[in-house]
Amino acid sequence: MIDEGGVGAKGMHEAFHQSLIDVQSEVRAAFEWSVASDRTSAEAMVACVANHAAMIPSWRNSERNLTLDQLRAALLAAKEVVVLGAAITESEVESIDMDGRLIIAADGSVGALSDRSKLACVVSDFDGGVHLNGAAEQGTVMIVHAHGDNSVRWMECLNTWSQCPTPPRLILTHQTPEVLSNAHNFGGFTDGDRAVCFALAMGVAKENIRLVGFALNRVGIWSATTVAERKLEKLVWMNRILTSVGLDDAVAK
Fold first, then answer.
1. Contact, 38 vs 174, CB < 8 A?
2. SS (H, E, C) 17-71
3. 2 in a domain, yes or no?
4. pTM of whole model > 0.70?
5. In the chain, what is the straight-line distance between the N-terminal and C-terminal CA atoms, in Å?
6. Is residue 166 part of a domain?
7. What is the DSSP letter of 236?
């Protein structure tokens, strides 16, 4: 388990611990992915958002930083931060006492929410389909992630969202070992564990983070765009990351 006295936000990135960045290189090696393609996609996403920012003030870098500050303050003020995974059911959502709590939804899991008044943000690499677009259309804060093989998806989504009457506020993330201008690396790999890494990076105590709808043994019903066999391989990494931060007890195995 990660020592909570580790690198933290003062390290190379904003991650709770440097190991949550380092694991991304291990994942690339395991799946034979290229760090250069991750970097190219992230830099292109930043440039795409900058182009749209001329017409969408909230997408300017200064405003994205303000969005991040406001989101951090809201999460720290919450009694508990509930992170929804892709295996969440609507009945599980309904059973959560939301008094004083805020929700971070991992990608398509936002579709399980009939009431989004307690939704702080969605963490996504653009796989969430109609559920993701629905949240974006409501102006939800979207923590959006670029990697080597999702450039077509992020471009389609950002171009679509830019046409919304109230475009969603954005925070941009990547998964390279370098510091990139105007994008963040909070650590982690899948949307679910990256949502947890984000909460930890914001300073939310581990004891104040609750996981609901996380499973290692099956593909969640809210995983919209996925290949089941490959997804299960990715979930092994998700569980490893959650184990490293001491938050794997809630994962169905």
1. yes
2. CCHHHHHHHHHHHHHCCCHHHHHHHHHHHHHHHHHHCCCCHHHCHHHHHHHHHHH
3. no
4. yes
5. 19
6. yes
7. H
Counted domains in the chain: 1
Determine the length of the chain.
Answer: 253
Phi and psi angles of residue 11, each rounded to the nearest 5 degrees, phi first: -80, -155
The reply to whether 204 falls in a domain is: yes
Identify whether the C-beta of residue 81 lies closer than 8 Å to the C-beta of residue 210. Answer: yes
Residue among 167, 175, 197, 192 nearest 43 (CA): 175
Domain span at residue 34 reads 8-244
CA distances to 16, 18, 177, 206, 243 from 3, rounded to whole Å, are 10, 11, 21, 12, 12
Smallest CA-to-CA distance from 166 within 143, 140, 147, 132 is with 140
What are the structure tokens assigned to 102, written together?
Answer: 């805020």
From first to last of the 253 residues of the chain, give the pLDDT tens digit: 765 544 333 334 689 999 999 999 999 999 999 999 999 999 999 999 999 999 999 999 999 999 999 999 999 999 999 999 999 988 899 999 999 999 999 999 999 999 999 999 999 999 888 889 999 999 999 999 999 999 999 999 999 999 999 999 999 999 999 999 999 999 999 999 999 999 999 999 999 999 999 988 777 676 765 566 777 889 999 999 999 999 999 898 7
Distance of alpha carbon 99 from alpha carbon 88, whole angstroms:
19
